[in-house]
Amino acid sequence: MSKGDAGVNLFGRNQELTSRPSPSGERSPNKYGLAGLLASSAARGWSNLTAELRSHRGTVAWNNPQPDAEICVDVRGSRSVVTRRLDGAIDSTISERGTIWFRPAGVQQGLIDMSEPVPAILHLYLPTGLFLSHDLGEGFDATAIDSLRHKGGFRDPLLAEMAFAIMLELEHETSAGRLLAETLALSLVARLIQNHAAPRSGLVMPAAGEGLDRRRLARVLDYMSVISHYENSFAKGVLDLKDAVYYVALIFVGLFFTARSMESLRWRS
82: closest CA among 104, 103, 65? Predict the structure, then answer.
């Protein structure tokens, strides 16, 4: 890890304070130090997600506000005891493959101690703008981010699988990588709010008497229906452009996730 200002040694080890991070989307190489960086999305052109695959050892500390929310996922497994101290809150976890940690944006002080070297942690940085209602849709509460707190050492198979897909893209870049990153960025935020926000936050319930916008819902369901596209074009012997685009997109998505699933199975085996 890079040299910085000496911090208070909370765990009886030498440690260093990291420098101030750069603006969202362009992470400073000194956040965790130059050593240990295995792969990065810095040159990929991803706008809503920054990803770094890193190995870690010892202790990491900082004393400046972190502008983005951060998800960390152990993608290899290590059995290291990882202890975090974030703005006074402490958690300790035995790290295994698929173990997840979450840090909301704005944490002023932090320290992470690892009892053993950790070979591969995927760091996912999400700008706070993704947590606002205009990005998530009308049904989400704009203050949902306020209910998301530090969370250490938890399991979430869906978050983990999304992280594994991003890791594979970092290691083997594809032409669809940017699209994958932009799509999964919103999916990560939605999953955090759905499963890890405080109860009754995240979704805004309609006021009494308003009900749902049935016409908009019907249009969405109609577009997603394979039968609807078939009956409106192919069954009549007509090939409409919007229906052709729908089927091509459906086939592409199916093949893409099938390929990713096979890669994930090969990785775990």
Answer: 103
Residues 220 and 178 in one domain: no
CB 71 within 8 A of CB 102: yes
What is the count of structural domains for the chain? Answer: 2
Q: Per residue, what are the HEC states of 206-225?
A: CCCCCCCCHHHHHHHHHHHC
Q: Classify residue 10 by its DSSP letter.
A: S
Q: How far apart are CA 153 and CA 156, in angstroms?
A: 10
- What CATH number is given to the structural domain containing 120? 2.60.120.10
User: What is the identity of the amino acid at 97?
Assistant: R
Report yes or no on 64 lying in a domain: yes
Domain's final residue, options 196, 222, 257: 196
Q: What is the pLDDT of residues 52-108, one digit of tens each?
A: 999 998 888 878 877 888 999 999 988 899 999 887 788 898 999 999 999 888 887
Same domain? For 147 and 39 the reply is yes
Q: For the CA atoms of 126, 131, 134, 137, what is the dihedral angle to 10 degrees?
A: 110
Q: Which domain holds residue 54?
A: 17-196
| Pick from 188, 110, 96, 208: nearest CA to 150 | 110
The pTM of this model reads: 0.64
Write the DSSP symbol of residue 168.
Answer: H
| Residue that has been written with the tokens 């249009």 in this structure | 219
